[in-house]
Structures are given as structure tokens and as C-alpha cells.
Amino acid sequence: MRKSAILFLIIVGALSCTKVPITGRRQVNLLPESDLMKMSLAEYNKFLAQHPLVPDTDPNTQLVKKVGKNVQIAVEKFMKGNAKYKKRIAGYKWIFNLTKDDKTINAWCMPGGKVMVYTGLLPVTQNETALAVVMGHEIAHAIARHGNERMSQQMALETGGNVLSIAVSGTSKETQDIFNISYGNVAGLGVLAYSRNHELEADKLGLVFMAMAGYDPHETVAFWQRMAKESKGAGLTILSTHPSDEKRIEEIKKFMPKALKYYKKPVTITPNP
Ligand SMILES: [Zn+2]
Hints:
Layout: H1 3-16, E1 17-19, E2 26-28, H2 33-50, H3 59-80, E3 95-99, E4 107-110, E5 114-118, H4 122-125, H5 128-143, H6 146-158, H7 162-167, H8 173-187, H9 191-212, H10 219-234, H11 245-260
Helix pairs in contact: 1-8, 3-5, 5-9, 9-11, 10-11
This protein binds zinc ion (ZN).
């Protein structure tokens, strides 16, 4: 790596670098998380206006909310019990919902904790533990602030580094110059791979989070094997940006011993509705 690129990373690091809980990966988040949460809430409300939810009285919705809440409680307990992570979930407001859409095999979580599951995913999850796999993974994206990181990268790319100039405003012209020159070097490195890396990181954190909530993380392998079958049959777009199934399952298996350290008290499982 060139000297300027190293300098760049040091400066950005000093300004805004944080570490992802558990994996310890360093990340750069340039946006205030509160801004991201505001934008996410607006997007979430737009989604609700256009997509019907399955009512709260439906057993499937109740299961989605039960599993979501179980994982949320475990994750919050862990985060609040750790001085380093306490502030990371400040302002998060978790909501777990099920949207009526049998054709889409998907789930997502917006920054700040708005989780949506599509009914099309339920034939693949098939049981409460696999639903916890999905919840763990989605909650992980929010805890790891992948949205902020991705947007920071995107904004940096689109503004040709201006966002980084803003980030260093107030510092000397020299620093700014190093920043601007170095930016080009760093922007070209691995930005496209981040999304895949985020997926793999969410898998790892998800294993830990479900285990903390009392769900057996071994189900994760079975779930992704079922997802692999689905994607072969239907050419799903949801999986097109994901890591290959083999790679994903291989990484999950590798991380399993670490996740099992967090798995203590099994949760009481509700039979599928
Ligand atoms: Zn994901």
C-alpha cells in the first residue's frame, strides 16, 4: 500500500473509526447514526404505506415478533453489559413485522432496528430456530452498522471524496491534500467486496446473537442449505448479491465453535403455526 493511502487510513481512523462488536473489524462510519435512523424511519414508513402487514393476531406474525424480541433482548443485554458497546445501540427502536408477500423470499433490517420478514421466507425457515437464524443475521446488520458503512463508501465514491473533505474540515490544508489524493487510492480498494463481506460478517454475528438468545446455531447450516435449493430453482434476485452458498456455509461452519461458546440456555420453542 502506498504511503499516502496508509496516511489516509490513519486520519480517517482517528476521525471516525470504530470496531464492530465480536468480530473486532475496524470500520469507517462517516455519517451520524442519528441521521441514518431518521432517513431509515422515513423509508420504513413509505414501505408500510405500500405493503400490507400480516395482522398481529396471525400466529406467524406472533412467531416473528416472539423470535425477534428474544434475539433483541439477548443482544441488548450483551451490548449494555459491555462498556465499549453500550453507546452503539443508543436510539435504536426495534420493530419486528411480517409483510404479506408470498413471492419474495426475503427479510431486511433498517438502521435503528426496523426488521421486516416476508411471508415467502416462512416455507424456507420452516421452524422457530431457523427464523432466529434470519433474525440474528438481520439484527447483526444493524448492530454492525453496515448501512452507515455502505452509505459512507457510496457517498465517498459519488462525491469524489468531497464527503471526506467535509469530514476533515478544520484541519490543515496539507492534511486535506493528503486526504484528497489518498482518497482515490483507497476508494478503489475492495469497495465492491464490502457487501459480500458484510453478509459474511452478519452471518457470524447472527450465529452469536441467536446462541445468546438460546437458539441452537447449528440450524444455520440447514437453513442456508434450504436457501441454496430455493435459489437454484427460482433464480432468486435476493441471493444474487450474496456470497455463494458453498462459501457462506463453509464460513458458518468455521465460526460455529466460537458461536457455541455463547449458547447456554435453550429457549422454549413454539411449534410452527
Ligand atoms: Zn444480509
